[in-house]
Structures are given as structure tokens and as C-alpha cells.
Amino acid sequence: MARGSRPPPAPPRRRRRQRYVEKDGKCNVQHGNVRETYRYLTDIFTTLVDLKWRFSLLVFILAYAVTWLFFGLIWWFIAYCRGDLEHLEDHAWTPCVNNLNGFVSAFLFSIETETTIGYGHRVITDQCPEGIVLLLLQAILGSMVNAFMVGCMFVKISQPNKRAETLVFSSHAVVSLRDDRLCLMFRVGDLRDSHIVEASIRAKLIKSKQTQEGEFIPLDQTDLSVGFETGDDRLFLVSPLIISHEIDERSPFWDVSRHQLEKDDFEIVVILEGMVEATGMTCQARSSYLADEVLWGHRFTPLLSLEEGFYEVDYGGFHHTVAVPTPACSARQLAAAAARRQAQLYWSIPSRLDQPLEEAAAAAAAAVGGNGDPDPPCESNGTVGGPEAR
Questions:
Q1: If you average pLDDT over every residue of the chain, what do you get?
Q2: pLDDT digits (tens, 9 = 90+) for 222-238
Q3: Contacts of 273 (CB under 8 A, 6+ apart)
Q4: Which residues of 328-344 are buried (b: 16+ CB within 10 A; e: fewer)?
Q5: pLDDT digits (tens, 9 = 90+) for 235-291
Q6: What is the three-state SS of 217-244?
Q7: Residue among 169, 288, 176, 295 at smallest CA distance from 221
Q8: How many CB atoms lie within 10 A of CB 231?
Q9: Helix (H, G, I), strand (E, B), or coil: what is residue 360?
Q10: pLDDT value of position 32
Q11: Which of 125, 158, 248, 333 has its CA 20 to 30 A from that of 354?
């Protein structure tokens, strides 16, 4: 480098997009300024189930401790008002509860009553109608507390979100040719031997847009077809599957080329749903791919091999991809080039019928690459879009 010359400026780094859904499926959205908090109390069961484990255990302990203390205080108050505590040594006196000589013994009797332990040392007598009413009330309320809290803990333990942790998604999505059509693909797999019943897959494109009327829609959601019309979105997830989105006229990636993909800003959220075979509960697993996690010109490596009497899946290469020849142009340009070649099969010499096709291809190229960085020509053999392997 000559003296006094400056090194070329480094290309600007693209600002990393804030994820809408994390790779582990957690939605990166927080609700603020919620004023109608009473709605959480109207559905107290779901609120308790959604609490973190440390808070759930705290509520579980407090629910029993508070009721035991509350009814223990009432039992002690009844004994105090009847004068039972003043006639402890009077054997001719019939107390409300035998052998209740203070608040501690009243608290122990409350625990025995609510948990139906019944040691037999303390027992209510038939000369205390208010005690009988309190006994019935505590027995009914104790059963309700048991049913509510045990139900909350059972639902929280059996939640299927832990099952979703064994449903895995590939770390990258890829774009390559399948049957001469550009397709966006990602891989899903199930690590357990017990299967997900009625599994289905969905994909959504998360991207901000502005309408023709000037309205700005942040994080607009657009469906990506992964086989809903043909039923290919219903999965038999016994071995890892490659989910394919064909980039056609209805796809939001119809005009996106490799060059534009490298500069674009979007997020693809994939959602896998199904029933857990062991419990029958619905399970949902989620993941997402940013624009820089979509590899153009790559294909997933095979995982399935035939062994003696069974098929074996090598999950060691679950995330591996290999570079393959892929056109760098958009799907629209690829379709226009295919239509032009198809027309040339019928016309061996140039004619005016080729002019509309050429004009359409030129217009598509201008629409996609009109930012001063034209895309490479769209040929069938294409160019390899990335490093040789990942």
C-alpha cells in the first residue's frame, strides 16, 4: 500500500434484528401498562398455573398454613369464650374440644381436622353446637382447598411445554432448488421414541410494512404455505423431516433474490403442534429464523440410513448443510427465464413472440435489482450460494 493511502472503509454491518420469537420458542414480548389487572384474578386457576415454580410452591404452602392458622384461631376463640381454658383441671366440665389447653393445641386440632389425620387425643364433644358447625365448615373448605391446590400442582407438573424441548428445529433455513423450483426449507425432528400425534406445522413471516394508504404496520404476520392445500403440513414425525415452502407467485419471497436476501430484514416463525402420545395433551414447539440465518444455495445433509432390520437416524448432522448450485436470481426471474426457454422450443428463430417474455424478464430484473446492484443472470446451472458446508 502506498504511503499516505488509506485502507478502504469496512462495509457497514447490518443491525441485528430484535427477535420476535427466540430460538427456544419463547416469545420476546412483554405486556406493559396493563390496567385491568383484576382479569387475572377472575381466572385464578390459570394465573396460579402460569406462575413460576418458586411462587407456586409459596402459594401452595401459604394456602394450607393460612387455613390451619385461621381455623386454629377460631377453635381457640371458641374455647376461650366458653371458659374451657379456665376449667382445664375440672373433670366435671365438658369442654368443646377435649385436651385443648391453648392456641398451640387448637392449631394442632385444626391440622388434624383439615387433613383427617385424627390422632384421637383431641376430639370434639357433643355439647358444643358451634364447634360442630365449625367442624363441618372446615371439612368442606379443606376439601375445596385440597382439590384446588392439588389440581393446580398436577396441571403444572403435567404441562406439555417440557415435551416441546425434545422437538428440535434446524439452526438455519436454506434456499435451494427442488424440482426446478426455488424452495425455502428447514428441518424438524423429535428426539423421543414416543411420537407426537396429529402433528402439524405452520410458518409465518414477521416483517414490518407500510400500506398504500401510508399506514405503518409493525411486525406484520404473513402466512408461508408449507403444504396446507395438499395436506403436507400434517406430519408423521417418526424421523426428521424437511419442511418446504415453495416460492411461487403467492409467496412473499417471489421477488427476493440472493442479493436482496442478504440486505433484507425479516423473521420467519415456525410452529409445530400436536398431541403428546403419552398424555393426550396438546404440545406446541416454536422457533424462528432471521434473515442472516437463511442460507441461499444450501441443502440439508441426509440423516437416515438403513441398517440391518431398522432405520437409524444420525442426529449428529441434524444442523449440517452442504452448498449446492442454485441460481442467485429471484423466483420470478427464474420463472421468466424458464418461460423464455419454453417459448424457444416452439420457435427456432427469433420472433416478436419472444419480445413480451424478454420485456417481462427485464421488468422483473428492474423491479428487484433497481437499487443499483443488479442480480447475476438467471441461468439453470446457477451459482453456488455460500460456503461449501456448514
A1: 83
A2: 999 998 888 899 999 99
A3: 199, 200, 201, 202, 282, 283, 284, 285
A4: bbbbbbbbbbeeeeeee
A5: 999 999 999 999 999 999 999 999 999 888 899 999 999 998 877 888 899 999 999
A6: EEEEEEEECCCCCCCCCEECCCCCEEEE
A7: 288
A8: 8
A9: helix
A10: 75
A11: 248
Tally of helices (H runs) and strands (E runs) in the chain:
8, 16
Length of the chain, please? 390
User: Would you tell me the crossing angle of helices 103-115 and 129-157 to the nearest 10 degrees?
Assistant: 60
- Residue 326's pLDDT band, with cuts at 50, 70 and 90, is very high
**Could you report the per-residue pLDDT of 141-187, keeping only the tens digit for each?**
999 999 999 988 888 887 777 788 889 999 999 999 998 899 999 99
- Sequence-distant (≥ 6) Cβ neighbours of residue 378 within 8 angstroms: 327, 328, 329, 333, 334, 336, 337, 361
Position 363 scores a pLDDT of: 54
Alpha helix ranges (H) inside 172-327: 258-263
Contact predicate 226/204, CB 8 Å: no
Pair 272, 348: CB distance under 8 Å: no
Distance, CA of 156 to CA of 49 (rounded, Å): 6
Closest CA to 305 of 317, 297, 293: 317
Q: Grid coordinates 394450607 are at which residue? A: 64
The strand ranges marked E within the chain are: 167-169, 173-178, 181-190, 196-210, 216-224, 234-235, 241-246, 267-276, 282-290, 294-296, 298-300, 304-307, 310-313, 321-323, 325-326, 383-384
- Pairwise CA distance, residues 295 & 267, whole Å: 14
Rounded Cα gap, residues 376 and 258, in angstroms: 9
Query: Three cell numbers at 171?
Result: 439452526
